[in-house]
Amino acid sequence: MGLIAVQSPINTRSLQNPQLNISGGRRLSGELQVSGAKNSALVLMAACLLTRDTIKLKNVPPLTDIAAMSEMLISLGGQVRSVGDALELTGDSINTSTAPYELVNSLRASFFCIGPLLARTGMAKVPLPGGCQIGTRPVVEHVKGLKAMGAQVTIEHGIVTAVVPGRGHRLTGGRIHMDCPSVGATETLMMAAALADGETVIDNAALEPEVIDLAGLLIAMGARVRGAGTPTITIEGVDQLHGAEYAVIPDRIEAGTFLLAAAITRSHLRVTPVISEHLGAVLTKLEEAGCTLNHDGIGLTIKADQINAVDLRTQPFPGFPTDLQAPFMSLLATARGTSMVTENIFENRLQHVGELQRMGAAIRMQGNTAFVEGVTSLSGAPVQGSDLRAAAAMVLAGLSADGITSVRGLEYLDRGYANFEGKLNAAGASIERVSSAA
Ligand code: EPZ
């Protein structure tokens, strides 16, 4: 039985061609509430396929990506029940190992299912997630790792077919050295290894907090995982995993976006909850830019008056996160001095430069580096978000700009930010979600 799929948030269902109209120049105050982490919740949901029992995930953000992942799990025979801000997921009746093309195509993260499906059933047919606006998004490391665990993997007609040959169709532990610290590959291989026969060692693993969060859930389910958060993760496979109850970590990228909303409006406000260790590089850059930050053990108070130029280079964690490069660039477009922003992670994640230039930003491009010369003020204009973080960056720019900024691309924004304008309006912003002329 499928179950109640998680409903998409209300604000994405009712308007045709929605856009946000932002009246800029207002100071913000009070508090901005951070939801659960999208990039953790999605992979934790996939982990429910590893057990016949029920997993209860708390602090799940109400996002369209979460609704899409729920649909994916239900299409595989899983059950998903929405209980307040929690999801109850049960994988006892997985009735297929084939993930539908249209669901994987709409949500890259659903490719995560290949690891648990293979570990659970010995077989998985999952469409290649394909590229997106920010890059080609390969899955080379994911496939390489599954092969190292004994899977036979072929890619034909855009479908990745993985099979575990032999009796019992059980993966065997192996040693995997990743060429790059891919977050998704690390998480996929951790889930596959959890039920493998023997020990798996993943070298050059991603260090992101979401990887540590996945390890926390797997351990709560009875898995034997050591070293999450270090470059070498060791997983001792077990015969089966059991249900668990687990709370998703706060979304560090949403928290960083809210801190930047405060900085770009030169405001004094509190963002909560924030785990400082998840945002070290970002907090350092905010202080370098002139912000005052104080953590009270749960939330972070930020005060911004004069903002100075800083240089950013995106790196894997604990370096500066690529997901906050665009929002931070909006801030730097209004800073005193010239900043250098280099995007090292994705090959096409500077499309927001053109949109910021439309608002009067003075930016010069040189390869994957943007030289951002701060201007006294941006001017409101109609702009487009090309991916979810670029859309958020345009909203931040609109908060600061003179006049009205209309931001399209909400189908991206709503993937990663729950009630974005509602939270900002509660802190003093003036943002309206309307239908734009077709
Ligand atoms: C995760 O994507 C996040 N998504 C992304 O967040 C985030 O930007 C990214 O990690 C980097 O931190 C989720 O967790 C759902 P990667 P993922 O594999 O796992 C290259 C957002 O805005 N690479 O670590 O797909 C790849 O091309 C999204 O919330 C290979 O070369 O990222 C990219 O340049 C966007 N070969 C870099 O590594 C591979 O086999 C990082 O990719 C795999 C990846």
Q: How much beta, percentage-wise?
A: 15-25%
Physical arrangement of strands within the biggest beta sheet: 21-22-1-23
For the record, give the distance between the C-alpha atoms at the N and C termini, rounded to a whole number: 39 Å
CATH architecture type of the largest domain: Alpha-beta prism
User: In this structure, how is the largest beta sheet organized?
Assistant: 4 strands, mixed
CATH class descriptor of the largest domain: Alpha Beta
How would you name the oligomeric state of the polypeptide chains in this document? single chain
Please state the CA-atom Rg, rounded to the nearest Å. Answer: 22 Å
Looking at this structure, what is the CATH superfamily of the largest domain?
Answer: Enolpyruvate transferase domain
Counted beta strands: 23
Number of domains: 2
Average per-residue pLDDT, rounded, comes to: 94
Q: Can you list the ligands bound to this structure?
A: ligand EPZ
The percentage helix is 25-40%
Spans of at least 5 consecutive residues whose pLDDT stays below 50 are 1-5
Shape: elongated
Any overview of this molecule?
It is a single chain. With 438 residues, the chain is of the alpha+beta class. The chain folds into two domains: 12-35 and 250-435, Alpha-beta prism (UDP-n-acetylglucosamine1-carboxyvinyl-transferase, Chain), CATH 3.65.10.10; 38-247, Enolpyruvate transferase domain (UDP-n-acetylglucosamine1-carboxyvinyl-transferase, Chain). It contains 14 helices and 23 strands. The chain has helices at 38-46, 64-75, 101-106, 114-121, 140-148, 183-194, 209-220, 252-264, 280-288, 325-332, 352-358, 388-400, 410-416, 420-426, and strands spanning 18-23, 29-33, 54-58, 79-83, 86-90, 123-127, 152-156, 159-163, 175-177, 199-203, 224-226, 232-236, 244-247, 268-272, 292-295, 300-303, 312-313, 338-342, 362-366, 369-373, 382-384, 404-408, 431-435. It has a four-stranded mixed β-sheet with strand order 21-22-1-23. Strands 2-14-16-15 form a four-stranded mixed β-sheet. It has a four-stranded mixed β-sheet with strand order 4-5-3-13. Helix 1 packs parallel to helix 2 (64-75). Bound molecules: ligand EPZ. Ligand EPZ is lined by residues 39, 42, 109, 135, 137-141, 180, 182-185, 206, 210, 322-323, 345-346, 388-389, 416.
